[in-house]
Design brief:
It is a single chain. The chain has 414 residues and is mainly alpha-helical. The chain has one domain (2-58, 69-161, 180-409). Helices cover 61% and strands 5% of the residues. It contains 15 helices and six strands. Strands 1-4 form a two-stranded antiparallel ribbon. Helix 3 (77-91) runs antiparallel to helix 4 (97-122).
Amino acid sequence: MLYYLFEYLHKLKVPGAGVFQYITFRSAAAIILSLLIATVVGRHIIRLLRRQQVGEEIRDLGLEGQMQKQGTPTMGGVIILLSILVPVLLFARLNNIYIQLMLIATVWLGLIGFLDDYIKIFKRDKRGLKGRFKIIGQVGLGLIVGITLYVSDDVLIRERVPVTKSEVAVQAVGDDGVQEKPVVYRDVKSTRTTIPFFKNNQFDYAWFGAFAGKHAEQIGWFIFIIITILIVTAVSNGANLTDGLDGLATGTSAIAGVTLGILAYVSGNMIYADYLNIMYIPYSGELVVFISAFTGATIGFLWYNSYPAQVFMGDTGSLSLGGIIAVFAIIIHKELLIPVLCGIFLMENLSVVMQVSYFKFTKRRFGEGRRIFLMAPLHHHYQKKGLPEAKIVTRFWIVGIALAVLTIVTLKIR
């Protein structure tokens, strides 16, 4: 909202009003405001949660220090959502299709998580929202994102196109005196995405429909929508499973947020995109404002969520964090980097799947269920081994940083 006010003031030649035209300035303002909201307003929200007796009910799993967390305020994800939404609404260009999608994803999954927490706490039902309704909500968001990216005329990538004979006639001369072919660009709808570790780093979903001839692109978009649904569901659930130790999901999400901010900035800047040989996505640079607010919100929430936690985010926060990371990566065509960037979420998901599958298999085969890990998700396995909670969280953060660096390095490793 402030962007439009200062844009109007800039037209009136008000000194200094033009600074709001710069994404870097608005991103800095967003991260500062989100930090302030999370730390200052967050303190009052925690007090309110305590007064309302919105405390976490802890099951005794035999983990060290677990029962001391009994009664710690939960639903702190409200702090994160507020710290994201307010700065974005103030500093971002709200007519940008990508910002609109991110706002929808944030509110959508925030409401699903809030409903789950509400049922657990106020309805005294430990199961919370039934799993199938969560899945329906996640699939619904995936459909909204995938279909919007397909039908919106504002969702384009800029690509080089072959020059025509008339264009070749106006060749430019380089510094070395050699004639250079002119570079021609056009904005197109595309089913291409970035694939890591390959020299030709673009993968086209339409290749799956090559057999269909002229309908290949439509098949490519259909597959893209299916992939979008799977990624939103998987990453959202992965963040939810990771939220089991103080600061673990929050810190991991902050690391992913910083990485996605770098990727969004270079993807939305034509000079950097051309230099790194990645696809340039017009108007996607505005997403840096959103991810700055996201990063500020998660770091600010860590003020209260770090060990020993004064508040838990609950599903209100964890489902939202995972969904935001997934949708953001999809929008900037970096969804195939998710297994690397979100390796922590992936391992938490896989540990649960492996544990449950192996237990069921061995129970059928041998009449007695056996386990791969001492406990799942993975972070509880290390707790069972006797590692202190703070050490587990710190080591997971270190792994997350290493994966984030690897994600960025894939821009050049091909």
